[in-house]
Amino acid sequence: MVRIAAVCALVAGLALGWTSQALPAPPEPPPVEAYGRLPAMDRVDLSPSGERLAFVASDGEGRKLFVRTVAGQPLAVVPLADKRLRGLYWGGERFVIFLISEQRRLAVDVPAAEYTAGFVLDVETRKTTPIFGRATKSWDVIMGRFGTARLGGRDYGYFSTLEQTRRMVAGDVEFADYFPDLFRIDLETGEIMLVDKGRPDTFSWVMDGGVVAARASYSARTGAWSVTRGESAAVLASGVEPFGEVAVYGLGRSRDTILLGVWGEDGSPNARELSLIDGTVGPPLVGAGDVFHAPLYQHDSNLLVGYAVAGANRRTVYFDPARQAQMDKIARAFSGKRPWVMSASASQDRVVVYTDGGDDSGSYWLVDLKALKADPLGEAYPRVTPSKVGKTRRFAWAAADGLAMEGILTLPPGREARGLPVVVLPHGGPEGFDDLGFHWWAQAYAARGYAVFQPNFRGSSGYGKTFRDAGLGEWGRKMQTDISDGLAALAREGIVDARRACIVGSSYGGYAALAGVTVQNGLYACAISVAGVADPVYMLESEIADTGGRNAGVRYWRAFLGADRPGWVGELNAVSPVKLAARADAPVLLIHGKEDTVVKIEQSRRMERALKAAGKPVELVVLEGEDHGLSGETTRIAMLQASVAFVLRHNPPD
Predict the structure, then answer these.
(1) Strands 41-46 and 84-91
(2) pTM score
(3) Distance (Å, rounded) from C-alpha 344 to C-alpha 353?
(4) Among 49, 217, 453, 596, which residue's CB has the most CB atoms within a 10 Å radius?
(5) pLDDT tens digits, residue range 89-125?
(6) Could you name the CATH architecture of 403-535+576-650?
């Protein structure tokens, strides 16, 4: 047990200052595998009573789902092997629900995609059963999950899935009948009951004690959305979101409201309460400069009790002032370590807190808010000890057109922040966002002597709709020069040596890496693209062919690519790494998962062929069985080993 006063003493002095004083010799870095392994502890969830924990961990024999009491008594273990775990939470005090995804093709005329299946672990019997195992007319996939409820002494879960007999057609019809139905699952017996028949465009429900409180619909063709009360057709709220940016999270603070995610007319943050009585929409929960991350719900009532904020002011917010005062004390005790509530008991007296930042590579704590004490539960990256964690801070600069932006800078442990070699690591998305905290990929480079720069270029999330929209049509253009403008600003301050830079990224970040040595020249000593887009025209054409083209995803890509204006093919080819392969002025490493359904491996194969035809140095590493998200431990380690070795070879730190 760690008393809060002791935690204060433990973390005192962790302010992230920078110094030009002489530093001791850099520590010997941990092996690459220490960063590439999946977290040693992950997805920790507390039961409603606050007496039981479910989590994922490795015990030397592979990754497993563990259930135990908070006192340490083991209750159940489920081997996961190389399964892709996508979710883990309690369904009452007796059942643990976990979600696993795999690549599947539901019908011959539907492209392969990652689909999620659900399972229920009965902690008393230690038996695991599939959620839709008894379904005869529906697929055993979960399209949405809508909470749990205890009714008449029994525990139920609510999930949506697709009916097998429905027609799913690509082309102009654009999956016209591709909508789910809502079911109730008895978590003990597995009995399935239809709760609500899906209608065209239905995508979400809000449940209240086993009753449908609201239903949400979105038209892929038009972008129109609406929320209706209960099972009726009475529209409470509606609008148009061309990119599908609307969400219904669950109930609000009372049973007369739900929590709606939609942009305000002024581009303000997108979490606000909607009245089920008169359809009025309340103000955004988070203020300017904050980023809504996730709601916090009470186990028994399913009412909203708070929310998590990401970004510069990452924190947990409770509506109850007394509870917030307790949380503030916890936050002060963990100063510098950025505490975040991951789960809570029904009473909210016990919470699981995750911390990272400062010299913390990721830790889980069981916190008693009433007694103000914290017990350590485990670490995410235990082999990356405090002295080997690189310090991080925000770095601000202005783009060439004056737009203000910032990114995350990680410095190598034990080295002075002057004239450092640098790895530029742009995020994916492109509507992603990098924040402070422990980033395993960035820290792996930093441990070997590199400054790591993660730029939040225009188009990134986390800075409001105006900043996001500034990226529309700027794929390979200002989104690309924003990155090199940030690198130049770091060099002007003397922190990095711009002549010793490599660019590395995944997904859109992989495109940015390839564009950094083809669309741009004279900037980088090497480029590494992991599951990156190499041919944007081919990407868009494939998306249209797979889905028919009349949907939010295609509208989104057209807007970011600038493919919604005349002459777009020629304009995109002008920023296409495949088309400009002959301009490549640095060695290129391509890494791609063979089962990637988001960015097809053909993207990297096309780039490899184009570079080889142009006589340019290129290597391709194919990750067998890997998806887009580097979900497998073996393949994640292989990616990191290959990318670190490539940077060390072409841009040595010493």
Answers:
(1) unpaired
(2) 0.90
(3) 9
(4) 453
(5) 999 999 999 999 887 777 666 677 788 899 999 999 9
(6) 3-Layer(aba) Sandwich (3.40)
